[in-house]
Amino acid sequence: MKLSRALPLLPLLPLLPLAVALNGCMNVGPNYSLPKQALVNAPLANAPIEGADTKLTTRQNVPAVWWKLYDDPVLNSLVDEALQSNTDLRVAAANLARSREALGVAQAQGGFSGKTSALVERAQESAEQYLLFNKLPVEYEGDIGISISYELDLFGKLRRGVEAAAADTESVQAAGDLARITVVADVVRSYVEQCSAAEELRIAQQSLTLQKQRVDVSRRLRDAGRGNQPDVTRGQTQVDTLAADIPRYTARRQIAQYRLAALLARAPSDLPPAVLACSTLPRIRQPIPVGDGAALLKRRPDVREAERQLAASTARIGVATGTLYPTVSIGASTGFTGILEDIGTSPTARWAFGPLISWTFPTNGARGRVREAEASSNVALAKFDGVVLTALRETETSLATYASDYARAEALRAALKSATESADETHQLYRAGRESFISDLDATRTLTSTKSQVAAAEGQVAIDQVNLFLALGGGWETDAQAAPAAAVPAAATSTAATAAAMPVAEAPAKATPTAATKAP
């Protein structure tokens, strides 16, 4: 055989520039633009955040590593470990890898494709198919060929598919950022709860020791004839009441440790000793940076996720619309077909070149699928608006709760100071015989109760701070993305760039109810 005599595919080459030129001539369906009527463009999304207290907050943007405001090396190491080993983040990373592969598949659609084939068989051909009436002999037949084609994306259906897949990938990346800030907040919250419970446990134990000392004094006074048994009984009752709270604080501490261990993918017994030994509540000793409404919406990953889902839904309108148009490709093939022993000779050579137009007429609900895609875009827009409102509500609620609990803690700290002075004075008067045991017992009960309330209130303030940081959406940035979102070019396609380009700072084009503008 002399395969070198096969006809080349040179007839295809002169038309390649034409194919490339035609391939980008139009895109059916709407071009995505952030809808003018979206709530992210409304004044409420760009106004200062309601509920911010000038004593407790500043207008500076939330730092990317907000947990370092605690200035706690143990907490910093816990967050770093969780970011490496947490299972939710592993799931998010796998989802992003899968989405990127789907984007690669979409990008590989259309364009050049080719195939080769080789066939050897013993057969008897039908004579009548060649208008012959004598039986043809049985022969070994062969077929060797190569073909190449180029699909012209004349109407942009494939490009819309790539656009939708790219927006899906950015949405999945934003979901991964949301998982990251949630994990960080959970780690900080669990650590704060563990330390807070340990501190409350220590205060409860101190109060219990103090009350036991009071009971011992009352027994000695009873034995000396200066007291009575009911005083001792009442004191012992308070001892038992305080002792009853100890298991509650112990359980809270253990639960926080279990939660923290799960976040770190560790056994509770493997937690660092510094974590188990923490008995002082970590505090942020500066106002919380909250930024403003526009910065919040740029920063929150769930807002970016919803906006990218809207972009993907809009692109799928073009995908559905593209099915109404014909598919056009240009192809060429060459090879040899004939009796096996003659393969490679001129009589068996064949070649073909030409365009192929395939058009399935829009029936069986094809137009309905376009309307379905448009409705899905409206759904995505409504969800986007809902996420924006939720982001603002969560932030304002967290700020109001933080301010309220902080004021309550301040008032309780003032009460604790007074209760401490009162208890000391009353006890001294009691020992001097100038106050009754009931007065001394009441003053001690007030002191221990106030101490417990102060510890609980300060623990709640610390939890409020974590919840506020989570609502503000900081902490998803990697080292490469740690620059402020506003500094990222709006034309970039990364998730960080989407965060900067998404809000109302850009001028939206004329919008339709499908959150898009029609292509020309």
TrEMBL record:
Residues 1-21 form the signal peptide. One of its GO terms (cellular component) is plasma membrane. Keywords: Lipoprotein, Membrane, Palmitate, Signal, Transmembrane, Transmembrane beta strand. The keyword Lipoprotein applies. One of its GO terms (molecular function) is efflux transmembrane transporter activity. It is found in: Cell membrane. It holds the Pfam family OEP. It is a lipid-anchor. The keyword Chaperone does not apply. It comes from the Bacteria. InterPro entries: MdtP/NodT-like, OMP_efflux. Gene3D superfamilies: Outer membrane efflux proteins (OEP). NCBIfam families: outer_NodT. Belongs to the outer membrane factor (OMF) (TC 1.B.17) family. This is Efflux transporter outer membrane subunit. The lineage of its organism: Bacteria, Pseudomonadati, Pseudomonadota, Betaproteobacteria, Burkholderiales.
